[in-house]
Amino acid sequence: MALADERSLTLFLAIVDCSALPPAFVWMDEAAPVTAEVAIGGARTAAYLGAPSKLFEDMINTGQASMATVPGLLPLQGGVPVLLEGAVIGAVGVSGSSGENDQDIATRIAECL
Question: By its UniProt entry, which InterPro entries does this protein fall under (predicted)?
């Protein structure tokens, strides 16, 4: 969260396991309540897809709108899978800033796990 502090961001961070259940949260002071749902949704999406949630956002934006009907998936940046030897073991979701910032911070956190 030091990176968030450096950028003067107030974020919500969710970490989910491989079944997309959220066992861990970090809620920074003054982060908006909606950031919790977005971070959890991004992490869940990355865990289900085994790819960054930006992929799902891109699918929706390039005409695969029917994908938006899949329950529990969120077509926004900020979710990144955590891989171990190529297998998804969980995911990180970050919300509270621009999609690009959320994605960058989630990627950096996932790389540390």
Answer: GlcG_carb_metab_protein, PduO/GlcC-like, PduO/GlcC-like_sf
| SS3 (DSSP) at 94 | strand
H helix or E strand, kind and range, residue 81: strand 79-84
The top-level CATH class assigned to 2-112 is: alpha beta
Q: What pTM does this model have?
A: 0.86
Residue 55, both tokens? 């992929």
User: Residue 88: how many CB atoms within 10 A of its CB?
Assistant: 18
pLDDT in tens, 54-112: 999 999 999 988 888 888 899 999 999 999 999 999 999 999 999 999 999 999 999 98
| The residue to which tokens 């029917």 are assigned | 66
